[in-house]
Amino acid sequence: MSKALIFCGLSILFLTACQDTVIIPKPRTYPRVEFPDRQYQTFIHSDCGYQFEAPAYAEVAQDSVFFNEKAPNACWINVVYPSFNGQLYCSYYPVRNRAELDKLIADGHTIANKHSIKADYIEELMVDNGHNVYGILFNIEGPAASGIQFYLTDSTHHFFKASLYFNETVNPDSIAPVLKFLEGDINHMIETFRWKAM
User: Fold this and answer.
1) CB 79, CB 60: distance < 8 Å
2) Taking the chain, what is the end-to-end CA distance rounded to the nearest angstrom?
3) Which of 1, 139, 150, 162 has the lowest CB atom count within 10 Å?
C-alpha cells in the first residue's frame, strides 16, 4: 500500500509541475541613494586666483595628472564625490590676452559639444553671478559621459573650466537622481565663485 501511495503522490507532483506557468518579469529597479544634507565650506587655493564653496561631503584635491602627463599648473583641482563615485574635474588658466581667452572659450564649447554624439540634448545657460564671474553652464542630457560642464571667466585675467564625470558607465535613468542632486551643488559653486587678486 505504501508503494501505491508513493506512486500516487509522485503522479500528482508530476502533473502539477507540468502545468503552464506564466513568468512575469519584474520591473527594473535601481538601488536607493542616500543623499547627504547640503553643507558647504569655502575652498581657497593659496596660489590660485579663485575661491568657491564646495560641499562638505566632497573632497577637494589637487589634480596632478592630465592625460598621463603633469597638469599644466598647480591650480587644477578635482572635487571628488566618494559616495557617488564621481568627480568634478576643474582646470584653471591665467589669461594673458584676448586671443588666449577666445581660444579657451572655443575649447570649452568644443569639449562640451563632443558629447552631442551620445547626448539627447545640450542646454547652454548663461552665467553671471554678479561678482565679475561670467560663463556658460552646459546641461548635457542623455547617455553622455559628462552630464554637466561649465566655464567661468572675468573676461580679462582668469578662466576656470569644470566637467562632471562618473567612474562607471552612465545609464541616464539610474544616474538621474544623483545628477540632479549634484547639479544643486554645482549651481551653488557657481553662485559663490569669486576671483582673488593675484
Assistant:
1) yes
2) 100
3) 1
CATH number for the 40-195 domain, one of 3.90.1530, 3.40.50, 3.40.1000, 3.30.310? 3.40.1000
Q: Domain locations in the chain?
A: 40-195
> What's the grid cell of residue 61?
584635491
Q: pTM for the full model?
A: 0.79
Per-residue pLDDT tens over the stretch 75-127 = 889 999 998 889 999 999 999 999 999 999 999 989 888 777 777 788 899 99
